[in-house]
Amino acid sequence: MVAATGGAVLKRISAVLTAAGATRAAYGALRRRPPGGAARWDRTNYAGRSVQLHAGLATAAGTALTAATAPGLSARTRGAAALAVLAAGGCGAYDDLLGAGDPRRGFRAHLSALRRKEVTSGAVKLFGIGAAGLAAGALLKPRPADKLLAGVVIAGSAHLVNLLDVRPGRATGAVLALGAPGLLRGGAAGVLSGAALGAAGAVLGDDLAERTMLGDAGAHALGAALGLAIVAGNGRTGLAAHAAGLVAAAAAGDRVSRAAATI
Q: Does some domain include residue 42?
């Protein structure tokens, strides 16, 4: 029993360190050779300072790589994790690049545009992450109701972290705070929490120093990883409770973002 427990702890520590190392390596490579040129990833933050979006792509890559290769995970869990994290990061990056000048925010604005037959980058992100969450949930849970709840939790967690990405360190700090309890759990939940924590911790300093920001790519990818950890560690009752809380947070999205900005 002691050996088994020690092995579980080592797997979680390995996930944290692997995610941190992979994220830092990707972050360094992106800073040296940003895809499409540096200007493509430059943004002006809330304080008028110029920052880059490199942390977003780096955390998405580091989290996905760790979840797909970490020891002790089943093939279905690896597949679900890679799918959800990469889809969330990819859809977020799409919105980062094509939706930068679009003032519309929130589900209502993008759904209203769809009713006018306008497909916004935000709508692509909304449906893309939702579909990936449902597909990942279907891989992780056997019963239809649990598959649906799992999909809501994965997509909802991705959205929640993005809501918090309104000031330096808010989203990365939230990932560390929300993911820390999951790191104490055994099995896939602990490993997946470790992947998110390691990736977030790797860029926290640069985020707080306003050298970089997560953007939609990083916030959604890290949130999806947290959602995967929740799904892996909970049965139907826990999934339902988390899903209800995440839906409520999404409905109060503007208030959640404003509250995060005041902290």
A: no
Q: Tokens in use for 181?
A: 């309890």
Contacts of residue 35, defined as CB under 8 A and 6 or more positions apart, other chains included, come to: 41
| Residue 2 pLDDT > 60 | no
In a 13 Å sphere around the CA of 240, the CA atoms on its Cβ side amount to 5
Split at pLDDT 50, 70, 90, the class of 170 is very high
**Could you tell me the end-to-end alpha-carbon distance of the chain, in angstroms, rounded to an integer?**
43
- Phi, psi (deg, nearest 5) at residue 37: 100, 155
SS (H, E, C) 103-165: CCCCHHHHHHHHHCCCCCHHHHHHHHHHHHHHHHHHHHCCCHHHHHHHHHHHHHHHHHHHHHC
Sign of the torsion formed by the C-alpha atoms of 228, 232, 238 and 240:
positive
Q: Give 73-95 pLDDT, tens digit per residue.
A: 999 999 999 999 999 999 999 99
Domain containing residue 105 = 1-36+52-261
What tokens appear for 236 in the block? 């139907």
Q: How many domains does the chain have?
A: 1
CB 240 within 8 A of CB 147: no
- Domain assignment present for residue 43? The answer is no
